[in-house]
Amino acid sequence: MPSAPASPVRVGTATDQGPRPSQCDAVTVTRIPLSTTWAAALVDGYGPHPDVPAAAQGAALAAIRSALSGGSAPAALETAGRTLTGRDADDWPEPDAVGAVAVGDDQRVSVAWTGDVRAYVLDPDGQTLHQLTTDHTEGARLRALAAAGEPVAEDPAEHDHVVTSTLGRLAADPASMGTATHSGPWTAVVLTSDGVHDALDHAELHRIVAATADPAQCAAALVAAARAADARAGAQAVDDNATAAVIRQG
């Protein structure tokens, strides 16, 4: 018997600048023509350079163009990195950014990332939200050392915003890219910048994704919840650009 047609894919994004002086997050999602494949890119630019917002937008668009031409998630992320050609006096990328690209269809999701942009997959029953990415930060590295029994003198939480891989450094250090694949059915794929997932714990993020079937409403709810959490946190607020992309089947 012929296989059942793939469920239609619906997408939504939301972003909020927050109290930061500029919007340095960039997000775009597209469906690949004449196929069930889709691609999403979320780029989080950082640093005081005035060209960071434009650089983040350019990197996200370059990633999507690569995916539209048949590129894999890692190839699309590498393409995004190649747009960041500026260098400071010490030959470090400037402006620079972190980011994630996801490419998928109804049975498979592939993700490539740098830094602390995250990707999640919601199981078909809605009971489990898997985090596909692992943060490339100094805080995460210190936690891993502590978990392995190594002595750690510093508080890892104090280093969670020190990223250890970036898009601008990929050309010089391609091994720094993270990759992951989810094989099998899924209900939703979610990409978030740290302005969302640093403000919300995993249980709250899961609750919103599982309860909100419309992807645009889901993305908006994630950003709104992050802003509400910031308001409650007072001096401990994340107060960063907050961005989410949601891809949903059915």
TrEMBL record:
Residues 1-24 are annotated as: Disordered. The keyword Ribosomal protein does not apply. SMART domains: PP2Cc (SM00332). Keywords: Plasmid. The keyword Ligase does not apply. It comes from the Bacteria. Residues 10-249 form the PPM-type phosphatase domain. InterPro entries: PPM-type-like_dom_sf (IPR036457), PPM-type_phosphatase-like_dom (IPR001932). This is PPM-type phosphatase domain-containing protein. The lineage of its organism: Bacteria, Bacillati, Actinomycetota, Actinomycetes, Streptosporangiales.
